[in-house]
Design goal:
Elements (H helix, E strand, L loop, with lengths): L10 H6 L9 E5 L14 E3 L11 E5 L32 E6 L10 E11 L2 E10 L4 E10 L4 E5 L7 E6 L12 E4 L5 E4 L3 E7 L2 H6 L4 E5 L4 H13 L7 E5 L5 H11 L7 E5 L5 H13 L5 E3 L7 H12 L6 E3 L7 H10 L8 E3 L7 H11 L6 E3 L6
Parallel strand pairs: 1-3, 3-13, 13-14, 14-15, 15-16, 16-17, 17-18, 18-19
Antiparallel strand pairs: 1-2, 4-5, 4-12, 5-6, 6-7, 7-8, 8-9, 9-10, 10-11
Helix pairs in contact: 3-4, 4-5, 5-6, 6-7, 7-8
């Protein structure tokens, strides 16, 4: 177990979030450090042994042994979802999802892929779940598929107990895809009636990498390349209905515009991540434009750091236009890029409309000092945002 102290990198970061001690972390160590942007294809991933004195670790870090990490902006870990049991070192079993089909009418929302929980079992059987919109309430809900020994039945329910059962099949088999008996589903009259069309089939297995990041609240990857397969797995996890990530920090991974575009496209379809860092990579205008497009489609992101990339005025313009109408992001760091006077001016114009952004760090770019001072003063006349186009003095 390893704890990292989160530190805001500027007053803008501090304005966007209160100082927090880092939450407990389940650390995954990549044994081979990356010294270039060449993807690592065969690095072993080993889950660190859990500390019995710490509980509810919901974070994964991929770090170089001995390296320290710094955060641009910090946010409290507010994840309170399901599956909060202590991770274990034994993840040798192969995780396999299942697919429910054949539900129609009022029960059609039950159809879909249910992901197997990695560290959760009920009465010695695996637990599966998916997130969907329930037509009757029009609200997003988790649905669980699990076995109860007392009834010797597999159950579909809103809770991991027998209090909110939607459907069940009496069958004492090891996995739900082996069920051969008829399912009974709740009717509009409140009783359970047989539904012969319901079927459960085995899905595809998850890769070892995705098994390690699945179900976690925070993912930190420092100074290690992802490679094509892991990038695809990360994007699949981000777009999954069952994604529980709230914070993704990619630091010095050699990511270029192509990889950034893939991640940005995944963010467009995510509703759980609030804190996203893509620091010290090789992101230029095309990557910034993809992130801007994600911002336009995502209303969950609150803190974004693109510090230490190659974003120029063109990329700054795209981001500023996206920020102009955004109402969810409260902190944005673009320190140490290639932004000049024109790019900084685009953000100043955006702040005439945006009233929700609390902190914006633009210093250590290529903005001329005199222009920066005047711009900061001008923005202060119409915006409460901490606009750091000039390096703060401490």
């Amino acid at each position: 177990q390893q704890q990292q102290q989160q530190q805001p990198d500027s007053q803008a970061g501090a304005a966007a979030s209160k100082a927090q001690s880092a939450p407990e972390t389940a650390t995954v160590v990549l044994e081979e450090p990356v010294v270039s942007s060449v993807p690592i294809a065969h690095t072993d991933l080993q889950l660190a042994e859990p500390n019995p004195h710490q509980s509810q670790a919901q974070h994964v870090q991929f770090v170089t042994p001995g390296e320290t990490t710094l955060d641009d902006l910090s946010i409290p870990d507010t994840w309170t979802g399901h599956g909060d049991q202590q991770p274990t070192a034994d993840i040798s079993f192969q995780r396999q999802d299942v697919t429910v089909s054949g539900c129609d009418g009022l029960l059609e929302y039950l159809n879909g892929t249910y992901q197997q929980e990695m560290q959760r079992f009920n009465d010695g059987h695996p637990v599966f779940w998916r997130r969907c919109v329930v037509p009757r309430t029009r609200k997003t809900s988790d649905i669980f598929l699990f076995y109860r020994a007392a009834q010797q039945a597999w159950i579909l329910a809103f809770q991991l107990d027998a209090s909110s059962v939607i459907a069940f099949a009496e069958s004492p088999v090891a996995r739900p895809e082996d069920i051969s008996t008829v399912w009974y589903a709740i009717s509009q009259h409140g009783d359970f009636r047989p539904v012969s069309t319901i079927r459960i089939s085995a899905g595809t297995s998850m890769s070892p990498f995705r098994q390690k990041i699945h179900g976690k609240a925070e993912l930190n990857i420092f100074q290690h390349a992802l490679g094509e397969e892991r990038l695809q797995d990360l994007c699949a996890e981000i777009t999954s209905d069952s994604c529980r990530l709230t914070s993704v920090k990619l630091f010095s991974n050699g990511l270029r515009d192509e990889e950034t575009c893939a991640i940005a496209n995944a963010l467009k379809h995510n509703s759980s991540i609030t804190h996203f860092q893509l620091r010290n990579n090789n992101v230029s205008a095309a990557g910034a434009e993809a992130i801007a497009d994600a911002i336009r489609h995502n209303s969950t992101l609150k803190l974004i750091s693109l510090r230490g990339n190659d974003i120029d005025d063109e990329g700054a313009k795209a981001l500023a236009e996206a920020i102009r109408m955004n109402r969810s992001i409260i902190g944005l760091s673009l320190r140490e890029n290639q932004i000049r006077n024109e790019g900084a001016d685009h953000f100043a114009d955006a702040l005439k409309v945006n009233t929700s952004l609390k902190g914006l760090a633009l210093y250590e770019n290529l903005v001329q000092p005199k222009f920066a001072q005047k711009l900061k003063k001008r923005v202060g006349t119409f915006s409460a945002c901490v606009f750091e186009v000039v390096a703060p003095l401490y």
